[in-house]
Structure formats: structure tokens, C-alpha cells
Amino acid sequence: MVTAYDYPSAVHVDEAGIDILLVGDSVAMVVHGHDTTLPITMEEMLVHCSYETGVRDAVISATRMLKEGGMDAVKLEGGSPARVEAARAIVETGVAVMGHVGLTPQSISALGGFRPQAQVAEEALGVLAQAQALQRAGCFALVLECVPGPIAAAITASLTIPTIGIGAGPATSGQVLVYHDLLGMMSHPHHAKVTPKFCKQYAHVGQAIQAHKLRLTQS
């Protein structure tokens, strides 16, 4: 799974044979330049194709994402009882839901920033319980973000649905990365978004542009 937010990136991801294309809220940081994913709105997300506090709003938003955004499924962050209830309600309407536990960017204020999760036994058991609850709610797959590899492996083994890891070791069913991280596009010194250490960069777009400019000025 790889993120994509516009036609060119979607074409690149599709032609590479990637199984799932994710239009994620990371668009807030890598496209709109925000320091977190929190400022992105429902309307802005639809342009690139959040669900809300209540179950009814969550169902309405999920339906809009499919009808107006042309999506095949929605991804819902968090594993609290309210989130699990929302996931179940959305699934019951016939909308496919992918869960997301561990580091959930929409909750970074409560989590203390972008930091690894499930570092102690109590937290790890909590993430495991959330993952299992989301599976029971009907999620077809689950993102595990920034949890230790052994924990991700144990969670994956406990589920019958596939897991998709990001910063969660090699033992998940699949992997997801942000398009802009893969291509080395987030190197601006004044931006809060930095490429995670676990992400291999296969290109450095900024360096290519600088090299082009240098070639022109020296010719």
C-alpha cells in the first residue's frame, strides 16, 4: 500500500503494481504543508480522492467518501470503544473499513507527538485488544503504525485479517509508505515533516531539481 494524492502519483503507484492506493490524511503535511494531519477537512480530503465524533456522522462521512471521492473503502483511525462502534456501523451499511491502531496521527496531541507506541507490556496488550476488536467489528484489514516488530508480529498472528505495517517491522502481512517519503520529497529544512528512519528513499527529487538548475546556470 502506498499513498497518492493526485493523478501523477496515482498513475505511478498503479503502474508499479501496488495492491492498495491510500488517499490518507498525511496529505495535510506532504501536500498542504501543515505540521500535523489535524488541519485537514472533509472537503479537502474529497478533493484528493475524517470521520467525526458521532457514529451517525462517521457513517455519513464514509458514505460521502465512497460516493463523492470514488473510493472503494475507508480507513478509520483508532481502536477506542467509540471508534470500534463507528467501524461496525460503517461496515453494516455495506462500506468496507480498514482499521488503524498504534500511532494514529489524528490523535498525536493525546499521544504526546509522533512517537513509537506499545513500548511497554500494558500498551502492547491495549493495541492487541484494539486490533482484535476492530476485526470483530468487521474491518477487512488493519494498519499497524510505529509499534515494535515483535508486537506487530504477535498481533498479526492473532488475527485472521491482513495487517499492513508502517514502522512496525517485517512480519506484517503487507507494508505501507508515504509516496513523498519514498521519493525523498520532504527535505525542506523548515518543515516539521521529516522522512522516517525506517523508510528507504529511492530518489531525492529536491537534489534532482538543484542539479538541473546548476547545469543551466553553468552552461
UniProtKB/TrEMBL annotation:
It comes from Haematococcus lacustris. GO terms for molecular function: 3-methyl-2-oxobutanoate hydroxymethyltransferase activity; magnesium ion binding; methyltransferase activity. Its EC number is 2.1.2.11. The keyword Transferase applies. Pathway: Cofactor biosynthesis; (R)-pantothenate biosynthesis; (R)-pantoate from 3-methyl-2-oxobutanoate: step 1/2. This is 3-methyl-2-oxobutanoate hydroxymethyltransferase. SUPFAM superfamilies: Phosphoenolpyruvate/pyruvate domain. It catalyses: (6R)-5,10-methylene-5,6,7,8-tetrahydrofolate + 3-methyl-2-oxobutanoate + H2O = 2-dehydropantoate + (6S)-5,6,7,8-tetrahydrofolate. The keyword Transport does not apply. Keywords: Methyltransferase, Transferase. GO terms for biological process: methylation; pantothenate biosynthetic process. It comes from the Eukaryota. Belongs to the PanB family.
